[in-house]
Amino acid sequence: MTDELVTIEVDGRELKAKPGTMLIDVTDAAGINIPRFCYHKKLSVSANCRMCLVEVEKVPKPLPACCTPVNEGMKVSTRSPMALGAQKGTMEFLLINHPLDCPICDQGGECELQDVAVGYGSDVSRYSEAKRVVPQRDIGPLIATDFTRCIHCTRCVRFGAEIAGVRELGATGRGEHMTIGTFVEKSVDSEMSGNVIDLCPVGSLTAKPSRYKARAWELTQHDSVAPHDSVGSNIHVHTRNNRVVRVHPKENESINEIWLSDRDRFSYEGLNSEDRLTQPMVRKNGEWQEVEWQEALEFAVKGLQSAAGSDGDQLATLVSANSTLEELYLAQKLTRGMDSGNIDHRLRQSDFRLDGNDSPVPGLGITIQGIESLDAALLVGSNVRKEQPIIAHRLRKAAKSGAKVSFINPLWIDLHFEADQFVSTPAVMVDNLASIAKAASAKLTGNLAKLVKAAEVSETAKSVAEQLKSANNGVIMLGNQAAAHPDYSLLVVLASAIAEATNTSLSYIPALSNSVGAALAGALPHRGPAASLVEKCGANAQMMQSKPRKAYLLMGAEPGFDFWDPSLINSALDQAECVVALTAYHSESLASCADVMLPIAGFAETSGTLVNAEGTWQSFNGLVKPQGDARPAWKVLRVLGNLLDIDGFDQNSSDDVLEELKSHAAETAIDNSVSTKTAGELNSSTEGLYRIGDVPMYASDALVRRASSLQRTNSAEPAAVRLSANQAKSSDVEEEETLVVVQDGNRAQLPLIIDPRVPDGAVWISSALPGTEKLGGQFGVVTLEKA
Amino acid sequence: MTVFKNYIKSLFLLELLKGLRLTGRYFFAKKFTVQYPEERAPMSPRFRGLHAQRRYDNGEERCIACKLCEATCPALAITIDVEAREDGSRRTSRYDIDLFKCIFCGFCQESCPVDAIVETRVYEYAFEKRGENIMTKDKLLAVGDEHESQISADIAAQAKYR
Amino acid sequence: MKILNNPLQARNKEEIFSEEIRQDIDCWIAKYPPEWKQSAVMAALRIMQDDNGGWLTTELMDDVAEYLDMSPIHVYEVATFYSMYELKPVGKHKICICTNIACMINDSDSIVKHLKKKLEIGFGEVTEDGRFSLKEVECLGACGGAPMFQIGRKYYENLTPQVVDSILDGLE
């Protein structure tokens, strides 16, 4: 195809376009409206709805604009009598079987069929016979269906095949009997399934959680940023009467295109959970009492001062990386103002041996859009499809255009693109990476040099090293399970050495929505704002727990669910004199160990800024009033700072806080450099049964754990012990048996499931699920006993 | 001349007699006032009085909570909350009309796709306490049940004009 | 370190179908380029249908999907689109009667009526003894001998109720 443009004429207007472009793309770009249903810019062209018929000069019949390539001198008329007649006729046919139930249809008011019918249809139908009715089908707790309304545009079917990568919906039957559905009784389980709701031009597929909750015209639309994974998808939050009613994606080609993961779409339900803490609470004589803010704050300040006033090291601050940049910045300022360096956001990390030599601001290092143009990627310890669905979608695009993607994982993962998976127990993961390092002749020193020297170079390691070497644009990505790995430091150094040797780049996929922001804000024991190394290094998350302090400040984190080792944090908090928790939820796990619970605003209730994996700062406003007496966390921290007599807590808005941070960190970019070539000894072992504790997709933070519809999906499985069939045989246990898991003296009773995804020698027990909140670390040796 | 004319007019009270003539004519003519409340003026089937919600013959409420009346109400007098009923059908959990706000324009009745909300011929009502001006769903349905025969007759009479 | 087949697609191709059926299907797969393996889906469905007494179960369609590396819904789509795939049990003799225009003008209606009465079944149903099932089909291209029907793979033309009786009586 040449680069020369052709000139066409549409409705008397001259337009230039690349030859071969579809007519509808050209008219869309020029702002000329052609009605359509099946055409969608992100999906393949199927040309089956026939709504976009236009008249082209010298062509005897109207042509569909969505599959008519433009040619030099083409004269198109979108509003000629022939085109209008064709559109009107199509509209009448489409409406033959469409029910007149707009008044009870959730799509009513924002329906493409309604709009186009008004714009291009006739005022009456000549059809008076019976209409087709399709029986109701249940395809899961997220999507409500009414296929009687379906006009067979097949956008949802194409979405499944082309974007989600799993073809779950299909069009069965023929002609009038054609119906969309799963054919067999089955739910749609893709992690991006909610997007079919947006794609559906009629009310066939609507959101079940917001079913009947509001009509389109009652909603106020606000821009915001999704608060779960590190993609920072842009969203539209729709509110009514000070309540979030639903969340839609906002188009941002460089981040989430037009898609949104189900977690980002439906997690808002957690906002209105019964668990919300709406009033400050204080534990007096062992009893929880609701009190006024003044009293609670004074109680907290007195507690903090008496426990850590004289010795700053006795204060430990543990913050969730889902907090906003402003909150994280104030939290570290408060902690450092108390003369303590003990602040950390890396609650799911256990290996901190690299601190000081670690990457200052770990992030993707490339743009999210840039993932599409990768030639090779090696992902270490990442179930990217469940953890960061949008990044997985981009990787899928890269893989489809020829990129070689490999995984080194402790579990087999279900992928929607071609990739090699090297699955082994956690200890062997390190060997696998060392083997690739050897094949790539990476330069390492000390301990790691020995490890690499001892590694066997297999054919597959060679091929991966070769793929990375030959790639113009390759990355080695470290995912959530790498960060939680007991030998994270080894993995990082090995990965960075391989990256150097193969001329690819090291990349981290941050776990939470503001993990990058936490590094910029200085919520780290060894790095202050803008990731500068501090003189007096504080205790990291692990040390704060293993050597209990007298005072703890928790923000947005639940001890049983947001920490690498729930048993460790619980015992540390139990021994503390004062535990101040800033939390949006009243959870059992907090109530058992905290002394003060201060209610903070949740997602969409506070203004703030999140920095996503590629380092983009995205600010948003508070959209609804916080529930009850809850207040934005930055305000709570500001007042705590004032009451503790610490300087620099006189900001009047979150913007002030942001400005202050920007004066330090505005220029700080993602920096994945690692300044060492060696690391410590191997922590993980091949002895005994080794636990692999991932964080399930719908258990990743407090908000999503309370999103009731997501919790009813098939992806939200209850806690269980998972073993491979071989391992179950050698451990002499049977499917569905209830087992007692013993880890570091902690016990939990869980059912056994035989799962081919688990490698032999390992046991898969997800963390962050009810039933596992008393267990030990995400990785570690466990024993199984019969109940 | 004009002065003389005016003098005669005022001397014989001609203007007064002219006025009395009109009074006299109506005094002896047939009366058109009605003796309310014993007598009632005739009403159009299009009369827009107190609101009512209707039911189908099987007792099922008609309203499907489409909120078109709420959207079209120029005085913002209608407030609706929706929920799925146990059987899954779309129903209102709250349907309030504030009669202080209502301007009786009849748009709600016009917009209703299922003829659920109607304005009846009832115009004799009064409020004694605060809050009585809010017509709740139960009150509306009660009005509907009471006047159903009249309402359906009126709708039937109007059918050909709609 | 070794690359394993993804254990999530654990079944080996050999485990899915019997040797004979595999040979039959493979013969069809060989007719298409390797990346268009799924083109053999129609042939594979036909082979499975014949093997299963004339109809397809969901499990069989799942097997075909797995064998051809397709998603099950894709196979369901094909199977429901073409009227010659049966998704419900059929009788030993499947009577496909044409009711399109040429046959209709030649009074196929009376043949239909006669068949329904004689077999005591309607369209899409199977006789109690499982011998016959009745199906209304579109034009089978034998308009010259209208009215006509097809039983199994054989066409019967110029039907009258009497002819129908003798044909049916002649069948096992």
Q: Can you put this structure into words, describing what you see?
A:
The complex is a heterotrimer of chains A (787), B (162) and C (172). Chain A is 27% helix and 19% strand. Chain A is built from 24 helices and 32 strands. The model of chain A has no long low-confidence stretch (mean pLDDT 93). Chain B is of the alpha+beta class. Helices cover 35% and strands 15% of the residues of chain B. Chain B has 5 helices and 5 strands; from the N terminus they run H-H-E-H-E-E-H-E-E-H. Chain B has helices spanning 2-11, 14-28, 68-72, 107-111, 137-158, and strands spanning 51-53, 78-84, 90-98, 117-119, 134-135. A 3-stranded antiparallel β-sheet of chain B has the order 2-3-5. Chain B has a two-stranded antiparallel ribbon with strand order 1-4. The longest helix of chain B is centred in the last third of the chain and has 22 residues, at 137-158. The termini of chain B are far apart. With 172 residues, chain C is an alpha+beta fold. In chain C, a hairpin with a 2-residue loop joins strand 3 and strand 4. The model of chain C is unreliable at 1-5 (pLDDT under 50). Chains in contact: A-B, A-C. At the A-C interface, strand 7, strand 19 and helix 11 of A face helix 5 of C.
Question: What key attributes describe this structure?
Answer:
heterotrimer; B: 162 residues; alpha+beta; two-stranded antiparallel sheet; 5 strands; 35% helix; C: 172 residues; Arc Repressor Mutant, subunit A; Glutaredoxin; four-stranded mixed sheet; 8 helices; 4 strands; 10% strand; disordered N terminus
Q: Write out the strand line-up for the largest beta sheet of chain C, numbering strands in chain order.
A: 2-1-3-4
The fraction of residues in strands of chain C falls at 5-15%
* Unreliable parts of chain A: none
Find the CATH topology of the largest domain in chain C.
Glutaredoxin
Q: Please identify the structural class of chain A as seen in this structure.
A: alpha/beta
Q: What integer value in Å does the Rg of chain C equal?
A: 20 Å
Under the CATH scheme, which architecture of the largest domain in chain C would be assigned?
3-Layer(aba) Sandwich
Output the structural class of chain C. Answer: alpha+beta
**Integer-rounded radius of gyration of chain A:** 28 Å
Q: Note the beta-strand portion of chain A.
A: 15-25%
Q: What is the count of DSSP helices of chain C, taking H or I runs of 4+ residues?
A: 8
CATH superfamily of the largest domain in chain C: Glutaredoxin
Helix content bin of chain C:
40-55%
Say how many strands of chain C there are: 4
Low-confidence stretches of chain C: 1-5
Mean pLDDT of chain C, to the nearest integer, reads 89
